[in-house]
């Protein structure tokens, strides 16, 4: 059984519909969630976190239905977006201090480790951080309670190439520790660098959910890079592929 099971989820808006999305996420793997802006990546992630009401389907973690076990499950997962949502004029130290009582699994050693790894000064306020450092702060909080699953919405957005590579290396290290890393992006080179599995979404449809090798075998033409393949699929309609 996958550590996360997304089964036939549906979310309808007046101008967009997420259509019977299904895929699984394994522990100790990096899953890249790829699609152009507006394809439905953030909507999918919000349904995976019960942040928006589903119109159909279900999401399970560790074999348990999310809606029936939300508090228990959310203590075991970490979530981060590419944008900051913490108090902008509070010190990092104070924000972390306010958050850690909510997690029995908060690990001060991990907090210190990632604080140093990311080069963050805990006496600074989020408003004083660059865009790249804000992303790292979000990840610091997600990683400090020993999450078994990380769900990251565009975590490399706004990062320079060096910082992006550094972050992808962190994903590789977490994978070795058995953590499931699920991250959305529209930057295909990030998927190419570190993903074990690709979930590709186009116009609200999950077109493919395969290992990276199987994705290339199924969809790439001779001589195409992964980027060439996905760009071609998008130009030809994306969701017409099966």
From TrEMBL:
Pfam families assigned: ABC_tran (PF00005)
GO molecular function: ATP binding; ATP hydrolysis activity
Membrane-traversing stretches: none
Domain called ABC transporter: residue spans: 1-228
Keyword line: ATP-binding, Nucleotide-binding, Transport
Alphabetized SMART domains for the sequence: AAA
Protein origin, superkingdom: Bacteria
PANTHER family tied to this protein: ABC TRANSPORTER ATP-BINDING COMPONENT (PTHR42939:SF3), ABC TRANSPORTER ATP-BINDING PROTEIN ALBC-RELATED (PTHR42939)
Protein name as it appears in the record: ABC-2 type transport system ATP-binding protein
């Amino acid at each position: 059984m996958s550590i996360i099971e997304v089964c036939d989820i549906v979310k309808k808006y007046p101008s967009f519909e997420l259509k019977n999305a299904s895929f699984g996420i394994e522990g100790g793997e990096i899953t890249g969630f790829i699609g152009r802006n507006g394809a439905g990546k953030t909507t999918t992630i919000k349904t995976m976190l019960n942040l928006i009401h589903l119109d159909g389907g279900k999401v399970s973690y560790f074999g348990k239905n999310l809606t029936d076990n939300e508090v228990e499950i959310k203590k075991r997962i970490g979530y981060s977006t590419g944008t900051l949502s913490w108090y902008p004029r509070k010190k990092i130290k104070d924000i972390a201090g306010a958050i850690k009582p909510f997690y029995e699994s908060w690990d001060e050693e991990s907090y210190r480790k990632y604080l140093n790894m990311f080069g963050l000064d805990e006496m600074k306020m989020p408003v004083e951080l660059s865009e790249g450092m804000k992303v790292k702060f979000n990840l610091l909080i997600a990683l400090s309670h020993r999450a078994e699953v990380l769900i990251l919405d565009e975590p490399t957005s706004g990062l320079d190439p060096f910082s992006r590579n550094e972050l992808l290396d962190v994903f590789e290290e977490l994978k070795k520790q058995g953590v499931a890393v699920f991250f959305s992006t529209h930057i295909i080179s990030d998927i190419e660098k570190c993903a074990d599995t690709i979930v590709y979404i186009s116009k609200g449809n999950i077109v493919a959910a395969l290992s990276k090798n199987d994705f290339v075998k199924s969809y790439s033409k001779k001589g195409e890079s992964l980027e060439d393949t996905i760009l071609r699929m998008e130009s030809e309609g994306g969701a017409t592929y099966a």
